[in-house]
Inverse folding.
């Protein structure tokens, strides 16, 4: 019985060690990923700032068009979901 308790304690210690190792690696990865995102945003902002007025207008029109398409798609998906719920009920 004592041997089993010691084995359980050893397993608990090993699990705790692995969890701490995983947590520290996730924190490191999160930090480098955040730096990468910030760097990408800075690059994007500088590219946007270098566009002409006409290029900015075209880009903005495309962006709004995509937003409208996504909203329409969301409405269609909601409608289909509601219809399926009615059929199932």
């Amino acid at each position: 019985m004592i041997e089993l308790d010691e084995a359980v304690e050893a397993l608990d210690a090993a699990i705790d060690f692995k969890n701490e190792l995983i947590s520290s690696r996730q924190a490191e990865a999160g930090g480098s990923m955040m730096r990468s995102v910030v760097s990408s945003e800075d690059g994007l902002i500088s590219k946007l700032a270098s566009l002409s007025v006409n290029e900015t207008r075209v880009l903005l029109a495309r962006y709004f068009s995509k937003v409208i398409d996504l909203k329409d798609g969301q409405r269609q998906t909601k409608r289909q979901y509601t219809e399926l719920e009615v059929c199932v009920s």
Notes: The radius of gyration is 26 Å.
